[in-house]
């Protein structure tokens, strides 16, 4: 088994439509690379024994890139469920949502344009014929329409990928853009820690709802250093965790 580092995303808050791009849903799970009888995370951690459902035996070798997800009652994915499975809860159901094909028949196809790789991936998914391994569908050009659907269905966001581009292992490329469906919230900061800088968040009922650890702009840092809690602010987050805390919150305005 050869470990290949996955191609990485750049962040982009610009929701756009463009005939030179394709767009696909962004699932809130764990990045995973899956071969015929093995799997590993984007960090190279082998997960084969923890995810036996993802093993398959084709007449030829392949390597798929995608996202490990678990179903949720109010969204197609559930980050907490994926975390539970990685920590040994074998009863947690999983699915692997493939979006790229890197190798086929012991040969790399990463230099092929993304459209061709997705065509080949479709055939591979049909050949695997597993209820646990599916392909993420994509649409051309209409990014704004897809993003609206993602927000309506409580999805994490969407990925924009430029047509005609190769797969660049280990590279964070502007050809792949991560566009998040942020939610915004008015909250209270009641405790600030300076080293490292962090801010504890509370709702209007004084319930703890998370901590901001990063994403501080120069202006936000200056205000945090000069103000004494409690005070209110607006944050953006990637929705809520199962423990009713804001997921990956960032401060965007201090009142």
From TrEMBL:
Stretches that traverse the bilayer: none
Residue span, ATP-dependent DNA ligase family profile domain: 87-179
GO BP annotations listed: DNA recombination; DNA repair
SUPFAM superfamilies: DNA ligase/mRNA capping enzyme, catalytic domain
Molecular function GO labels: ATP binding; DNA ligase (ATP) activity
Entry-linked InterPro entries: DNA_ligase_ATP-dep_cent (IPR012310)
Name of the featured protein: ATP-dependent DNA ligase family profile domain-containing protein
Source species: Domibacillus epiphyticus
């Amino acid at each position: 088994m050869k470990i290949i580092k996955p191609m990485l995303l750049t962040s982009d808050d610009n929701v756009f439509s463009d005939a030179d791009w394709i767009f696909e849903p962004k699932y809130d799970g764990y990045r995973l690379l899956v071969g015929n009888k093995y799997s590993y995370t984007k960090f190279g951690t082998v997960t084969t024994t923890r995810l036996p459902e993802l093993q398959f035996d084709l007449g030829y070798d392949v390597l798929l890139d995608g996202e490990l997800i678990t179903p949720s009652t109010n969204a197609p994915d559930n980050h907490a469920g994926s975390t539970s499975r990685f920590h040994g809860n074998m009863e947690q159901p999983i699915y692997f949502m493939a979006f790229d094909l890197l190798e086929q028949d012991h040969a790399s196809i990463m230099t092929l344009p993304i459209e061709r790789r997705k065509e080949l991936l479709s055939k591979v998914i049909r050949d695997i014929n597993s209820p646990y391994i599916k392909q993420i569908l994509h649409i051309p050009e209409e990014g704004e329409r897809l993003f609206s659907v993602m927000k309506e269905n409580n999805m994490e966001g969407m990925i924009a990928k430029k047509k005609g581009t190769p797969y660049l292992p280990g590279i964070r490329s502007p050809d792949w853009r991560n566009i998040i469906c942020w939610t915004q919230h008015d909250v209270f900061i009641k405790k600030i820690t300076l080293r490292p800088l962090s801010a504890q968040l509370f709702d209007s009922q004084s319930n703890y709802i998370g901590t901001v650890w990063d994403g501080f702009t120069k202006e936000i840092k200056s205000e945090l250093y000069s103000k004494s809690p409690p005070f209110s602010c607006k944050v953006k987050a990637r929705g809520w965790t199962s423990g009713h805390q804001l997921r990956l919150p960032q401060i965007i305005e201090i009142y």
